[in-house]
Amino acid sequence: MSNHEKNAEKSALPLNSECWRLSVAPMMEWTDRHCRYFHRLLSPHARLYTEMVTSAALVRGKQLRLLEHSQQEHPVALQLGGSDPHELAEAARQGAQAGYDEINLNVGCPSGRVQSGRFGACLMREPALVGDCVKAMRDAVSVPVTVKCRIGVDDQDEYADLQHFPQTMLQAGVDVLVVHARKAWLQGLSPKENREIPPLDYERVYRLKREFPQLTVIINGGITNVDAVREHLAQVDGVMLGRAAYHDPYLLARVEAALYDVPLPSRESVLQHMRPYIEAELARGTSLKHISRHLLGLYQGEPGARGFRRTFSEGAHKAGAGWSLIEQASAPARMAA
């Protein structure tokens, strides 16, 4: 079967948008494999994403360790950064062979390092190139290829600028578009400022869904509670949580319970379910601090939260730190509950 025939077959089998109803954003230096395992315990249904991995790191650098993940993480997507269609195709192939359920192309990161590599948000100025990239990736793999973008960059103030982008993606065979509802300022703002200063414009994303009903549209940016998730889901197909879910990970459990009518797990039970994973990682030489940093917000807003964080901050980096430190950290929170 030719690549063209394969793509036609994929197009004939529409993706189930329910798969993308809830997801956790790819976040550099945060959503590593330890974080994703933890988030999976809080939300069995959420789609999880890796940190962005550059295609060059996989293809030229041969850093296959970047693809490591556990079977418990599924459904999990690999996010790639790059702008060379052939290189992205090979990286996508490696990701699919490693078992990822989706390959996502980053067209939203505004950092200077990313711009210098001609990928991330600056690619929104080159939709034809993005189309070539995703077409090459789709030709290389059978899992879904998706795109994460912004509503614009710099002086792209007209809705027509954004409108052209999904048109091009659809022509390239993309069915799923994740849209961060802020513009990216490529000059003058840091990546952190780009997550906070450009105003949110949810209506542009809603309009995109109305005008391109064939697209599965996932909205991202500034979503911090269950009510907001429900409101967005009345307009688009899915919601992607970012920093709010990292700093207050129990938010994932609350959203899971609201959307899927399942009971809320206790924070203590989540920690207990982490124990086999943590002990296995410690046995293979992983330092506790690499795992515990993702747990710091578990008791966010609860009595004892400060003591929980302090115990980890003071002890997780020490040689020999293990499960007993987690028991010690959670004791004040359990007593305060």
Question: Which short descriptors sum up this protein?
Answer:
337 residues, alpha/beta, TIM Barrel, nine-stranded parallel beta sheet, disordered N terminus
Structure commentary:
This protein is α/β, with parallel strands linked by helices and 337 residues long. The chain folds into 2 domains: 3-260, TIM Barrel (Alpha-Beta Barrel), CATH 3.20.20; 267-336. Helix content is 46%, strand content 12%. It has helices spanning 3-12, 33-42, 55-59, 85-97, 112-116, 127-140, 159-172, 191-194, 202-211, 226-233, 243-247, 250-260, 267-283, 288-292, 305-315, 323-336, and strands at 22-24, 48-49, 53-54, 76-81, 102-107, 145-150, 176-180, 216-220, 238-241. Strands 1, 2, 3, 4, 5, 6, 7, 8 and 9 form a 9-stranded parallel sheet that branches. α10 (226-233) links the parallel β8 (216-220) and β9 (238-241). The N and C termini lie far apart (60 Å). The model is unreliable at 1-14 (pLDDT under 50).
CATH architect. name of the largest domain: Alpha-Beta Barrel
Helix segment count?
16
Characterize the largest beta sheet: strand count, sense, and whether it forms a barrel: 9 strands, parallel
Beta-strand share of residues: 5-15%
For the record, the count of structural domains works out to: 2
| Counted beta strands | 9
Q: What is the helical fraction, as a range of percent?
A: 40-55%
Q: Return the CATH topology of the largest domain.
A: TIM Barrel
Q: Please mark out the parts with pLDDT under 50 across 5 or more consecutive residues, or reply none.
A: 1-14
Give the integer mean of the pLDDT values: 90
CATH class call of the largest domain: Alpha Beta
> Measured on Cα atoms, how large is the radius of gyration?
20 Å
List the helices and strands in order: HEHEEHEHEHHEHEHHEHEHHHHHH
CATH superfamily of the largest domain: Aldolase class I
Report the structural category.
alpha/beta
